[in-house]
Amino acid sequence: MNKNPLTVEEVKEAADQFFPLFDVVKQGMPEGSTTEDTLKVMESICTLAQKLRVQKELDSTPFGFNKNQETD
User: Which stretches of the chain score pLDDT less than 70?
Assistant: First the structure.
């Protein structure tokens, strides 16, 4: 693992990905929620999103007799 200090560009790239996701979760939070609350909920939502992604991939993967058929 690279233990060199992060560059400004690396942090900016990460922030560009993180903050839009954070904002989506924050918009759904009840009024008065703290940043810590939002981060905790965001972690759960991202875990669920990963599971949904895997399920979509599994649902679209051919199996059985269908795995030999090509789709257009």
Answer: 64-72
Cα(72)–Cα(66) distance, integer angstroms: 13
The answer to whether residues 21 and 42 touch, using CB atoms and an 8 Å cutoff, is yes
Tokens for 5? 């200090």
Amino acid at 70: E
pLDDT tens-place string over residues 31-46: 999 999 999 999 999 9
Supply the DSSP symbol for 4.
Answer: S
Instruction: Report yes or no: 41 and 29 within 8 Å, Cβ to Cβ.
Output: yes
Residue 24 dihedral angles phi and psi, to the nearest 5°:
-60, -45
